[in-house]
Amino acid sequence: MTLKADVEATLSAHGVKPTPQRVEVGMLLLAGPCHVSADQLLQALRQSGSRISKATVYNTLNLLSRAGILREVAVHPSRVVYDSTTTAHHHFLDEETGELRDIDAADVELLRLPTLPEGTQAASVEVLIRVRRLQERL
């Protein structure tokens, strides 16, 4: 099966109509594990010769996230990174470069969660560990 056929099948399996624009976005995102912002994705699409609009990229990312094909990682109140790995895992965030690196869920042990508000249940727990380089001493 080709990547295009895989993307079309993934979209369809999640109830998303595989339009040419969605397939184009999906081919970049689902080729392998990746972390990408909407602007980074738009830039990559434009560099490949695509004429896709910014609005279409944002709308497609939101749709793919709602469908469970992508995962949104809020790295800052005004910045979301889209993660093509949707299985349970956590992240390191390099504060200098903005790079996200996956952490296997088994490598993080949560001993206790606070009492949840009445009438609710935990849907998920995501750990984001912000890291920065150590400063060398002079």
Number of domains: 2
Gyration radius, in Å: 17 Å
CATH architecture label name of the largest domain: Orthogonal Bundle
Largest sheet: number of strands, sense, barrel closure: 3 strands, antiparallel
Q: Mind telling me the CATH class of the largest domain?
A: Mainly Alpha
Q: What's the total count of β strands?
A: 6
Describe what you observe in this structure.
- There is one protein chain.
- The chain is 32% helix and 20% strand.
- With 138 residues, the protein is of the alpha+beta class.
- Strands 1-3-2 form a three-stranded antiparallel β-sheet. The protein has a three-stranded mixed β-sheet with strand order 5-4-6, with no helix packed on it.
- Strand 2 and strand 3 form a beta hairpin.
- Helix 1 packs across helix 2 (20-29) and helix 3 packs across helix 4 (54-66).
- The radius of gyration is 17 Å and the shape is globular.
- The mean pLDDT is 94.
